[in-house]
Amino acid sequence: MTDISRAGTYSLGDRDVKRMGYGAMQLAGSHAFGPPKDRAGAITVLRAAVDAGIDHIDTSDFYGPHVTNHLIREALHPYRDDLTIVTKVGARRGDDGSWLPAQTPQELRQAVHDNLRNLGVDVLDVVNFRVFGHGRSEGSIEERFSALADLRAQGLIRHLGISNATPPQVAEAQTIAPIVCVQNEYNIVNRVDDDLVDSLAEQGIAYVPFFPLGGFSPIQSDALAAISARVGATSRQLALAWLLARAPNVLLIPGTSSVSHLQENLASADLDLRDDIIAELTAIA
């Protein structure tokens, strides 16, 4: 059994969480829409994650929609005192599974109340405002983030974060309310946030990357596979281990609907990469 505490901990608001967490997105149906193919299996994965020591679960009520939060509640409620559940607002699903913006103050308030109800809690640990778009889009977030800051002031949200955001949007959010995390796409080959990762580390703010293998070209994938074979790990394990080595404020949330894949992901915490391997991986970009 992997001891995920080997990867260390980092502050997420007023709690220290293990750097290896779990993302619940894949528990819903295909493309995070509809019910899971195996509901009992999804419940088993969630319980296995917590049993393995995970104390940071990432979710959203727009996964399903509502599916992952219902599963989390069924599997884990009443929640352990040390479990931090992080959710996101800012999108909704069309009847065809399409991703649609839900960014007005009223929609954001409704999304927070939906998360509270479906998770079965009185206060949400962390709410990330998801800046809508398939890529990152510039522009002020003041009105939208202020709506969430108001809910935080009312005691419905403990901490705020931001997702899919540019550095100026992160900075703007911080003028409105404290943030405890930034959740953006970032990996070995997608390094646009290099400076942001380091800046947040200096401020004691967590950086939570998603899509650890997203955007790799065939040549880059082959290079990663070759290094992985030498190290004796899978490409995904090595990509996760590189992220853990990248900076102490990086928190991981790899997702899966399989207990075996969960165990494979968690084994990344056991990888102690040599400096030359880290440099070789970094050079893939």
What does this protein structure show overall?
The protein has a single domain, classed as NADP-dependent oxidoreductase domain (TIM Barrel, Alpha-Beta Barrel), CATH 3.20.20.100. It is α/β, with parallel strands linked by helices. α1 crosses α2, α3 (105-119) crosses α4 (142-153) and α7 (218-231) crosses α8 (235-246). The protein is built from ten helices and eleven strands. The protein has a seven-stranded parallel β-sheet with strand order 3-4-5-8-9-10-11. Strands 1-2 form a two-stranded antiparallel sheet. The protein is globular.
For the structure shown, list the relevant keywords.
285 residues; globular; 10 helices; 11 strands; two-stranded antiparallel sheet; single chain; alpha/beta; 7-stranded parallel beta sheet; TIM Barrel
Topology:
Blueprint: E1 9-12, E2 15-18, E3 22-23, H1 39-51, E4 56-58, H2 67-76, E5 84-89, E6 91-93, E7 99-101, H3 105-119, E8 124-130, H4 142-153, E9 157-163, H5 167-176, E10 179-185, H6 194-203, E11 206-210, H7 218-231, H8 235-246, H9 259-266, H10 275-282
Parallel strand pairs: 3-4, 4-5, 5-8, 8-9, 9-10, 10-11
Antiparallel strand pairs: 1-2, 6-7
